[in-house]
Amino acid sequence: MNVQLPTGRELFESKRPGSADIAWCPGCGNFGIRNILISALAELGLKPNQVAIISGIGQAAKMPHYINANGYHTLHGRAIPIATGVKASNPELTVIAEGGDGDMYAEGGNHLLHAIRRNPDITVLIHDNQVYGLTKGQASPTTMKGMKTPTQPWGVFEEPFNPVALAVALNASFVARTFMGYFRESVEIIKKAIQHKGLAIVDILHPCVSFNKVNTYTWYREHTYWMDDHDPYDREAAFKRALESDPLPLGIFYINERPTFEEMVPAYWKDRTPLWKREPKLELVKKFFEARKL
Amino acid sequence: MAEFREEVSIVLGGAAGQGVQTVEEILTYALKKSGYHVYANKEYMSRVRGGINTTEIRVSSRRVRAFVKRIDILVPFNRGTLSWVEDRLSEGTVVLGEKENIEEAFLGKINLVEVPLTKMAMEVGSQLYLNTIAAGLIVGLFHGDFSAVEEYVRKRFGSKDENVVKKNVEAAEKGYELGVKLCEEGAIRVEISRDEKVKDEVLLTGTEAVGTGALAGGMNFLSFYPMSPSTGVSTFAAQHAEEFGIVVEQVEDEIAAINMALGAWFAGARAMVSTSGGGFALMSEAISLAGMAENPVVIHLAQRPGPATGLPTRTLQGDLNLVLYAGHGDFPRIILAPGSLEEAFYLTAEAFNLADRYQVPVIILTDQYFVDTYYNLPAPDVGKVRFERHIVEAKPGYRRYELTEDGISPRAIPGYGEEVVIGNGNEHDEWGDITEDAELTIKMQEKRAIRKLETIKRNAPLPKLIGNENAEYLVVSWGSTFHVVEEALEKLGSGKVAHLHFSWVYPLNPEVRRFFEGRKVIVVENNVTGQFADLLWKELGVKANHRVLKYDGRPFSVEEVLEALKGVVE
Ligand SMILES: Cc1ncc(C[n+]2csc(CCOP(=O)(O)OP(=O)(O)O)c2C)c(N)n1
Ligand code: SF4
After folding, report:
1. How far apart are the first and last CA of chain B?
2. How many CA atoms lie within 13 A of B562 on its CB side?
3. Pairing of the two strands A200-205 and A94-100
4. What is the rounded CA–CA span in Å between residue B385 and residue B31?
5. With left for phi above 0 and alpha for psi between -120 and 50, is residue B125 left, alpha or beta?
C-alpha cells in the first residue's frame, strides 16, 4: 500500500524470529489492518509492554505474532473473556481483543453480547471479511445472502448478522465500522476506540482475496460511505444508520459513556493496584476464623 | 427409657422452606458453645419448596466428623419424614415430635415422645416460633447452656426488633424447659461429657474451608456460572469481595468463566473458578489451552452424580476421570482432593502456589457431601500458609517458553519489565510465536508432557498412612471418604488393617508404590466403577484386591464401610 506511515512505529515492529514469516496471503486486507493498528498505537504514544493484544483463532487472530506488544493467541471465539480477565487484573494495560467475523460473531457470539452488558474497558477489533479465511472459505455470520461457498454450494440463505445494529440495540459503549482501505480514517477511528473508556467495538471490513470473490477492495469502496452528518450520541439515529445495508455507512455510530467493569468491581473501590502486586490478606482470614468461634 | 451416653445422632427432617435449617443452626451453635463436639451434614432434594430434606447432627464427647446411618433422635417436621428415613430407624430411635407429623403406619411401632410444638408456638404467639422451640427443646435434653441459645437468637434476629428477639427467647425457653422435663421424667436421657476446649474452636463448612483457603492463598479473581453444589464457594467469594479486594463476576457460561480466569492469570492475578461436573465439561477446551499455553489456573470442582445433570443436590466421587482426561492432547495437571476441612484449607491455599509454580491447571475435587459438611475444629493456622510468587520480570531477550531442564519456563506477565510476553495456544517457539517445525514440536511436547510432569511427580507429596506400616490390609481412601473410613477402622479395631489416604490424587509420586508392597488393597470410593482404583493400576501398577463402592447419590456411612470391611478382612 502506498501511504505515508507516521514515525514511532518501529517500537511495534517485531524482531522475533517467528514474526518474519507472515502467514497472510499476498494482497490480504489483514496487512492493512496491521499497519493501521501499529500506527494507532504509535500515535497514541503507547509502549509495547503497556499493550496486550488478545486474539482468538483465524487468519485475523494471528496478529499478535506480527507485532511487538504483549500478546496471547488463544481459542476460537474466546478472546473477549480472556481480554476481560486481563484488563480486570491489570487496568493499567491497554487491552485489545482481536479476531475475525467467525471468531467474534459465531463461536464467540455469546461472549460479545455479554461483554456489551459488562462493559470492560477493552477494544474489540473484528476483521470482517465476510467469510472464514483460515478454514478456506466457508460462509461466516456476515456472508451476504446468495454467496456460494464450498460448504454452501446452493448459496447462503441465512440472514446476515448485523453487528453494528446489534451493538447499538444492546446499548454498547462505543460502536464503529470502517473499511481498512481508508487508512487515515481507520487509524483515527481505532485511536478513538482505544481511548474510549468502556467496551469499544470496531467492525473492520477487509477483503479476503483468496476466498471472497464478491466483497473485493472495489466492492467495499463502491458500497460504503462515510457518515459526515451523524451525531454518535443519538442512539435512535445510530440505530437507523445501522440498519442501512447498501451502501454501508462508515464511521462512529454510537457512543454511550457508562461505568466500566473495572470501575464497578469492589476489588478496585479502595485500591487501584493491579492484582498481581497484591498479597493475601491473612489478617482478615484470621479475623474470619475468630468470628467462627461464635 | 432411651438413654444416650457420650454420643447421640439427631436427625431433623422437614420440607424445604420449613425452617429446619434455623433449628440446625441454633443447635450446632449452642451445643458447640456448651462444649460438645458437633458434626452436621444435610441431604436435600433438588427443589426450592416441599419435598423432604434431612440434617444429621452428631453430638459427642469426642471429635466426630463422619456420617452415620444410625438415628438416635428423630425430629420430624412434616409427614413423610419417617418413611423417607425408614431404613435408618432402629429400636433405639426416639421420635420426638407431634402425632400429625407421623404416618399412621409407624404409630405403635416407634418409640414416640410426643411434644406439642405447635401448641406451644401458638401460646407464644404464632406458628413461627415452632423452630426456636424445637431448638430449645433439644438443647434442653443436653442441659446445654441456655445463654448460648439466647446469644444466637439475639445475633440472628437482633436487627429486626427487640420484640422479635424477646418472643424467640421466650419460645426457646419453653422448649428448653420441656427438654429438661423430659429428662427428669425419664422419657429420654442424654449424658455426654463436655470438653472445654471445644468452645474455642471454630465451626466451619466444607465450602468455607475451600473459600478461606483460597483467600489465604491470595485468590483475587473468581469467575463462575452457578451450579450446585459448587455455588457456595462463589457466594462466599462474592460476600468477601469488597473486604478482600477480589474481582468476582458471575459470567454468561462456564466457557467464559474459565477463559476469564486464564486471562486473569496471564496478567498475573490469582484466579479461581468454582463449578460442578457439567460446568467443568464445558471448560475442557480452555483446560487444553491452559495446557498448551502453560497458563496457570485453579479450579474448584464440587462433584455431584452424573452423567449430564444427574442428581443435582446429591453426592458422588464420579468426576475423577473427567478431570484426569479433560482437554485434548498431552499436558500435565494437578488434582487435589481434601479429606478434612483442615486439608481443604491448606490445600486450596497451596493450589495457588502450585498453579503459579508449575503453570498448569490445578483442580480441587470436592463433592456435595464434603462442601455441605461441617464440624468444629481448631482454627487452621494461617501462619502456616506459604505465599510463593513465581512471576519474573520480562527483561530484554525474555522468552516465555524457554526450553529448560525441568520443563518449567520462567513466567513473566504483561507490564512487568520492558520486554513483551507472548502466550500461545498454537504450538510455538520459545518466544511464543507459531511454529510448525518438527524438531521444535518434539521439544515442546516433551517439555510439557514429560519433563514438566516428571518434575511435578518428583515433588508430589506422599499419601498419609494411618496405622501399622506392615498391616496385612491397606484400605485406600481419597477425598471426602477420609473420615468415614477413619471412623470405621477405629470401630473395626483390627491391627491387621491400615489406612492410606490420598489428598494429592494426581500425578502420583512413583515412591507411592512402596506403601502397597505385600499388602492386600481395599479401595473405598463413592462411584460405580472405582475410578481411583483404576488410576492406581494405570499409574503405579497397583491392583486393588477389593473395591468398596457406593453410588446411590448418598455418602458412605460409618456402618456401611465397617460392614464392608468386616466382610473383606475376616
Ligand atoms: C473450536 C474450534 N472450532 C473450529 C475451529 C476451526 N476454525 C479456525 S479459524 C475458523 C474461522 C475463521 O474465520 P474468521 O474468524 O472469520 O477469521 P479469518 O480466518 O477469516 O480471519 C474456524 C472455524 C477452531 N480452531 N476451533
Ligand atoms: S485467506 Fe483471506 S483473510 Fe486469510 S490471509 Fe488469505 S486473503 Fe487474508
Report:
1. 36
2. 18
3. unpaired
4. 30
5. left
pLDDT (tens digit per residue) in B169-200: 999 999 999 999 999 999 999 999 999 999 99
Ligand 1 centroid from CA A59, angstroms: 8
Cβ–Cβ gap A86/B263 under 8 Å: yes
Ligand closest to A215 (CA) is 2
pTM for the full predicted model: 0.97
Ligand nearest to the CA of A63: 1
pLDDT in tens, A260-280: 999 999 999 999 999 999 999
Closest Cα of chain A to B18: distance in Å? Answer: 25
- CA–CA separation, B215 vs B207, rounded Å? 12
Among candidate residues B156, B504, B569, the one with its CA nearest the CA of residue B339: B504
Q: For chain B, how are helix, strand and coil distributed in percent, rounded to 5?
A: 40, 20, 35
Q: Would you say B176 and B137 are in contact if contact means Cβ atoms under 8 Å apart? A: yes
Q: Residue B247: in which H helix or E strand, if any? A: strand B247-250
Is A62–B379 a contact, with Cβ atoms under 8 angstroms apart?
Answer: no
Instruction: Give me the sheet containing B473-478, strands edge to edge.
Output: B464-466, B497-502, B473-478, B520-525, B546-549
pLDDT in tens, B496-531: 999 999 999 999 999 999 999 999 999 999 999 999
Q: What is the C-alpha to C-alpha distance for residues A267 and A260, in angstroms, rounded to an integer? A: 13
Ligand 1 center from residue A135 Cα (angstroms): 6
H helix count then E strand count, chain A: 10, 8
Distances (CA, A) of A268 to A92, A260, A271, B246: 12, 12, 5, 8
CA distance B69 to chain A (A): 28
Query: Which pairing describes strands B504-506 and B334-336: parallel, antiparallel, or unpaired?
Result: antiparallel
Residue A51: strand, helix, or coil: strand
Ligand 2 cavity residues, CB under 6 Å: A 24-25, 28, 30, 59, 129, 133, 208-211
Residues of chain A where predicted confidence (pLDDT) is lower than 50: 1
List the one residue out of A280, A171, A269, A178 whose CA is nearest residue A220.
A178
> Does residue A209 line the site of ligand 1, with CB under 6 A?
no
Cβ proximity of A227 and A241 under 8 Å: yes
Q: Find chain A residues with C-beta within 8 A of B382's C-beta.
A: 282, 285-286, 289
**CA distance linking residue B363 with residue B366, whole number of Å:** 10
Strand partners for B37:
B60
Residue A60 is given by DSSP the state G
